[in-house]
Amino acid sequence: MKPLVVFADAQAAAADILRTALAGRSEPYAAGATVGTRVPGDRSPEIPHLPYVLVRKDTDLPHSSMANTRATLRVTVWHTDADQAHDLAQLCQGLLIVHSGPVIRGVRPATGPLAAVDDAGETDLSTFTVLANVRPTA
Description:
Layout: H1 10-23, E1 34-36, E2 52-62, E3 69-79, H2 82-97, E4 104-118, E5 123-134
Parallel strand pairs: 1-2
Antiparallel strand pairs: 2-3, 3-5, 4-5
């Protein structure tokens, strides 16, 4: 019988990493950033919850040895203007790339940051993806 291998939640781990790391940052565009794993219901720039950082897992590709899985994580940043959205996305990407911990052992850049406008609220956003190597928990 093969051993049971389970991987931790890379999406939750990445959100926790960013939540903790952003809380200690002094950059003005990072001030008051909220990190979550669900798309905010109201994304208009007048709502005081901006900036908002969304972390979602796009794919999960376990290695055949089951010693590692590679998760594609998408991070989307809504902000009050395009420059701050881009700057905060760049910072988030850098914070994930330098991280190594008990769940996510390493991160590489994949795409972006790419600028866009959220049609739901005409809010500026920037999005990127990273490839996260995730350790098994069992």
